[in-house]
């Protein structure tokens, strides 16, 4: 890790260097940016997403004064191996990756499926995590999480018919505020022009959906044991992971903070990035 110390600090996600680390027979692809030292903020990405799916308007403000790491879990994007069919196993892989980088303490920023993986990780390794940001996500056993697959396939079909990105349907309301916010978000994801990640494979995506369904149908985790400061955020009209589940998480995690953005969906934090990024920065730096 010390061999990167002399490089200038990169604070733009579009320019973050691509790295790999191998552990447990898997080569994990990751990017890092921001000043080294201190506790890193590790980003846990959403369903069907790779390193290219993080909104630079969220990552860059956090990376101004924090060491940020985004990664592809096993079988995703440029990481090798195959995606496990349980969220718990995904959390085990994430743990392997974090330990391979030599960290004993991290902050987590998570979105959607990433938030489910993050919860399983914290429950199993409470000492690893100092602070937790859970966005667009819900608890294990949460109401209607098992319906994510149906919603996803339906919106992918709608998107194909209109030749749009499925995220425009899945993450945003189809109204006069949601549509332009969706287009702007999808454009921001294209800001990195070189050294882009490998796309997710269809089988990997299907396996992730299977894992989410299992997660939705399993017994809830005991989140009352969580002592980490936790920030929970979502839009008020999340069709993928219903917004009520953010309130459910807030009730289950003592002392957690909850932010719900109006007239927005699963991608509420991306639609309201100008409001949300400072909240996340402040929470993580406090």
TrEMBL record:
Q: Does the keyword Metal-binding apply?
A: no
Q: Which UniProt keywords apply?
A: Hydrolase
Q: A single GO molecular function, which one? A: hydrolase activity
Keyword presence, Zinc? no
List, for all copies, the residue spans of the domain called AB hydrolase-1: 41-270
UniProt-recorded name of the protein: Alpha/beta hydrolase
Instruction: Give the source species.
Output: Aeromicrobium ginsengisoli
């Amino acid at each position: 890790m010390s061999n990167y110390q002399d490089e200038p600090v990169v604070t733009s996600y579009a320019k973050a260097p691509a790295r790999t680390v191998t552990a447990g027979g898997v080569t994990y692809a990751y990017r890092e940016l921001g000043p080294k030292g201190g506790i890193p903020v590790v980003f846990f990405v959403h369903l069907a997403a790779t390193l290219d799916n993080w909104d630079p308007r969220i990552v860059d403000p956090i990376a101004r004064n924090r060491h940020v790491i985004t990664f592809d879990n096993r079988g995703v994007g440029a990481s090798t191996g195959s995606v496990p069919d349980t969220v718990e196993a995904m959390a085990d892989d994430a743990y392997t990756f974090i330990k391979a980088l030599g960290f004993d303490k991290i902050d987590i920023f998570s979105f959607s499926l990433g938030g489910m993986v993050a919860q399983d990780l914290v429950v199993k390794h409470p000492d690893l995590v100092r602070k937790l940001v859970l966005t667009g996500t819900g608890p294990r056993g949460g109401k209607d999480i098992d319906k994510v697959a149906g919603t996803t396939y339906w919106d992918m079909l709608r998107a194909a018919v209109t030749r749009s990105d499925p995220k425009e349907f899945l993450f945003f309301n189809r109204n006069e505020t949601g549509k332009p916010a969706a287009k702007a978000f999808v454009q921001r994801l294209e800001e990195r022009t070189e050294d882009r990640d490998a796309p997710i494979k269809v089988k990997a995506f299907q396996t992730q959906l299977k894992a989410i369904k299992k997660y939705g149908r399993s017994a809830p985790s005991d989140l009352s044991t969580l002592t980490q400061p936790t920030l929970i955020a979502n839009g008020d009209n999340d069709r993928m992971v219903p917004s009520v589940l953010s309130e459910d998480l807030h009730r289950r995690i003592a002392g957690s903070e909850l932010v719900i953005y109006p007239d927005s969906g699963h991608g509420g934090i991306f639609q309201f990035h100008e409001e949300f990024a400072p909240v996340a920065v402040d929470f993580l730096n406090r």
